[in-house]
Every structure is written in C-alpha cells, then in structure tokens.
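for the record, two folds in this file. i put them one after another cuz i was lazy. first one right below, seq on top, structure tokens after. the second one comes after a little note so u can tell where it starts
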Amino acid sequence: MNTRWLSLALVAASLSPLAAQAQQAIVPAQSEVTFTSRQMGVPVDGRFKTFSAQVAFDPAKLATSKIAFSVDTGSADIGREANAEVVKPLWFNVAAFPKATFTSSSIKKLDATRYEVAGKLAIKGVSSDVVVPVTLAQTGSGSGAITVASGAFPIKRLTFRVGEKEWADTSMVADEVQVKFKIALTGVPKL
C-alpha cells in the first residue's frame, strides 16, 4: 500500500465518531440484555440472545465518548410459544426491522460510578429520545480489567408499535416494559 492511500485511510478513520478514542470490546459470556413485561398483570421475563455494541468510553473525555448498541430483535426469548409470535409483523416485525438500536448523544457523570446516557432508541422504524441510567463497576487492572455497565430503564412498547391492533389493548399486555442490561467490557480506562 502506498503512503498516499495509507494517509487517506488514516484520515477516514479519524473522521469516524468512534475513532476519536480507544474502543472497548464486549465480553459476551458476562453480558446480558433482559426485559420484563406484564401480561394480564403477570410479569413475563425475556431476554435477547444476540446483541452488539461499539463503545468508545473514557470517563475523562465524556464529550467525545460514544455508544452505539444493537439488538437482534429475532433473538428475543420469552418462551417457546411466545417466541414464534414476537417475530411477526404485529410485534417486532423482524423481517422488516431485524434490529433495535440505541445511539448515544451525550453522557453525563452523576457521581464516581453512576452516569446518565442520553440518546435515540429505535425499534421497528420508530425513534424516541431516552435517558439510560448506567452504573459502572471495575475489577482487575491494566489490560485484564473488566468494567461492567449495568442499569434498567422503562420504555413504552406502543411508542414503538410493538404489539399492534388487538395487542394494543394494555389490559392484556401492559404498555410499560422494563429493560435491564449488564454489559461487561474490556479496555475501559480506570474509573
């Protein structure tokens, strides 16, 4: 590769919003995204089996820190019978909208371990502003350090057209869904 192309590649990489600082990697075996809804008043727990993230977080550089998170909606696991339903057009419509995404717009430090991450959540082609509370815990040191980002936040499923037509009746399935996450990351600078 000649030096001109290498220079152009480096310039292009520097223009990427996540290239501004070192990126972290998810540790899948220690991470999870779960949710709880209520069907006829009874809690129903589920989880997403497949998700990914691009994280460039530095507690000393919050203005340039970015998070882009993606969940494969077809990986929702609520239970054998429900799994066949949630992929259909009235629910996640996985054929047309295979991913739900979150993209941060700002990160605010609340104290030594707690942050608020504001951004856009997009599900089924609908975007809405959300603020996600995140608590960080760090174990180990140096390159072996693991940082766990955890939190929970509510969403209104009807805002995102999840559960349409007869399923829009909130006496059957509540509008509010509690989303919980625990994401283990490598490469986060010392808190």
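(here's the note) second protein begins now
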Amino acid sequence: MAANIGTLDRYARVVLGIVILSLVFVGPKTLWGLLGFVPLLTGLAGFCPAYRIAGVSSCPAKK
C-alpha cells in the first residue's frame, strides 16, 4: 500500500474530516457526520483507494 496522497492533500483531508466529524456533536447533530472518518483516515494513512482506482496520485514523483 504505497502512499498516493501528497502533503497538502493529507492536511486538507484531516482538517475536512475533523470538521465533518464535528457535525455529530455541534450543528445539526446528525450521524451523517460520521462520514468524516473517510477523509480523516485516508489523510492519516496517506493512501486513498479511490485515487488508486482512478490512477491518480498527488504525491510528488519519487526518483
């Protein structure tokens, strides 16, 4: 499982995941906020299965 998410993309995913997860506790207080785990976990892991399927990588090229 090679990393396919770049640094900026990882930070954005972690922040977005935390914001979406906060919807469980504040705001509309809906369980839809649990979807925030998806960007949070992919950001922490540095790997996105959807990027792999699409053949996309935001990681800088390794030489």
